[in-house]
């Protein structure tokens, strides 16, 4: 809630008054300078038949009304000129204010698109337009995400309701099958809820940063997912260098698990291969996960990091997940100031590269002065 403020003068009026004040000050200094030079060339008095005549007093009486008239003209000129100039200079600010008000009322499609040469107002307007574009895209994405999440969460609830209705209407039905299906539906709802919470945590960057070695994450993820890989007949090959970075150990491990899990599930059954490689480069470390699989189009691959977006031919199995695996990976990477690159392999499958900033070298202890 905005704190109450006392009414004040507008910026345009303040600018006009300031301009008029400077014009008046310049006028006073100019007239004072002229008066000083006049006094230097005039005697203080002159003799006449009637006695001494105060020359300077006579000149002052003639000079003062003219100077006052000039100052009055300068005051009027300063106020009018300052008002017009202020209006012209603050016109871009008025457009920016109008756009801000429209954005505050929910209209994010409006753009200022300020014309003219590059100056401070143009930079401000362009920055505001960029902010509006990003905000509009973010709001649109959040609305789509909320709609998809609602749909995904509603599905297991609807299935549970239908199963219970069948059980009530048919008491003689085998309860074991009912319990098994209810357990599967409930497990899916729990997985989806946990994935949504993890995604929210990554987006908010609410985690403690600590040194993390991605190569150790790969080893732990491979050990965890090895039984699933053996069940699918997929071979996992892990190699690479020590890759120190800074971030959340839990989130970066989840990122690695999601990538390798995705590579196992979306692979060639019985003869698939997953390769996880870590590498260190100047200023960054990389984690590369590639897998064999069916040939994917670049258009399909570009949508895989969007929440609940799945390739239609790639999810018809028991471990399809909830459609948030790569979306979570993307959020975790962005929360760690990294980049995620996903490309289709020419022979089928995916090639995923995560690039993160490298960890700074440890600070050397300061030796005490003896």
Description of the structure:
A 5-stranded mixed β-sheet has the order 4-6-7-9-8, with helices on one face. Strands 1-2 form a two-stranded antiparallel ribbon. A two-stranded antiparallel sheet has the order 3-5. The protein is 57% helix and 14% strand. The chain contains 8 helices and 9 strands. α1 packs antiparallel against α2, α3 packs antiparallel against α4 and α5 (214-232) runs parallel beside α6. The chain has 3 domains: 11-107, no CATH class; 142-204; 210-312 and 322-357, Histidine kinase-like ATPase, C-terminal domain (Heat Shock Protein 90, 2-Layer Sandwich), CATH 3.30.565. With 370 residues, it is α+β, with helices and mostly antiparallel strands. The longest helix has 50 residues, at 55-104.
Keywords for this structure?
single chain; 370 residues; alpha+beta; Heat Shock Protein 90; 3 domains; 5-stranded mixed sheet; two-stranded antiparallel ribbon; 57% helix; elongated
Helix fraction by DSSP (H/I, runs of at least 4):
55-70%
How many structural domains can be distinguished in the coordinates?
A: 3
Mean pLDDT: 79
CATH superfamily of the largest domain: Histidine kinase-like ATPase, C-terminal domain
Q: What proportion strand?
A: 5-15%
> Count the helices. How many?
8
What is the CATH top level name of the largest domain? Answer: Alpha Beta
Order of helices and strands: HEEHHHEHEEHEEHHEE
- Given the helix and strand composition, which structural class is it? alpha+beta
Give me the CATH fold name of the largest domain: Heat Shock Protein 90
Shape: elongated
For the sheet with most strands, the description reads: 5 strands, mixed
Biggest sheet strand order reads 4-6-7-9-8
């Amino acid at each position: 809630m905005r704190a109450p403020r006392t009414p004040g003068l507008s910026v345009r009026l303040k600018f006009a008054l300031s301009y008029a004040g400077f014009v008046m000050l310049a006028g006073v200094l100019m007239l004072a300078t002229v008066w000083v030079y006049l006094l230097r060339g005039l005697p203080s008095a002159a003799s006449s038949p009637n006695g001494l005549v105060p020359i300077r007093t006579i000149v002052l009486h003639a000079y003062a009304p003219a100077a006052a008239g000039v100052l009055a003209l300068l005051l009027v000129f300063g106020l009018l000129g300052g008002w017009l100039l202020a209006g012209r200079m603050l016109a871009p600010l008025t457009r920016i204010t109008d756009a801000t008000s429209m954005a505050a009322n929910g209209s994010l499609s409006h753009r200022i698109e300020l014309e003219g040469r590059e100056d401070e107002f143009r930079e401000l307007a362009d920055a505001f337009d960029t902010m509006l574009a990003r905000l509009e895209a973010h709001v649109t994405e959040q609305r789509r995400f909320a709609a998809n999440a609602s749909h995904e969460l509603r599905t297991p609830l609807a299935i549970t309701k239908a199963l219970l209705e069948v059980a009530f209407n048919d008491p003689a039905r085998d309860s074991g099958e009912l319990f098994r299906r209810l357990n599967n539906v409930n497990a899916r709802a729990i997985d989806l809820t946990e994935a949504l919470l993890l995604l929210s945590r990554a987006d908010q960057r609410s985690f403690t940063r600590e040194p993390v070695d991605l190569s150790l994450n790969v080893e732990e993820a491979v050990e965890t997912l090895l039984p699933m890989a053996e069940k699918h007949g997929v071979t996992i090959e892990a190699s690479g260098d020590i890759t120190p970075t800074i971030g959340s150990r839990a989130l970066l491990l989840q990122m690695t698990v999601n990538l390798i899990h995705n590579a196992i599930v979306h692979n060639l059954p019985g003869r698939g291969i997953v390769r996880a490689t870590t590498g260190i480069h100047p200023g960054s470390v990389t984690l590369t996960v590639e897998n064999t699989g069916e040939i994917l189009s670049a258009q399909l691959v570009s949508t895989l990091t969007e929440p609940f977006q799945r390739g239609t031919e790639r999810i018809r199995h028991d471990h399809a997940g909830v459609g948030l695996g790569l979306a979570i990976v993307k959020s975790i990477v962005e929360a760690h100031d990294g980049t995620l690159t996903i490309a289709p392999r020419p022979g089928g499958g995916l090639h995923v590269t995560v690039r993160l900033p490298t960890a700074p070298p440890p600070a050397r202890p300061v030796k005490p002065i003896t």
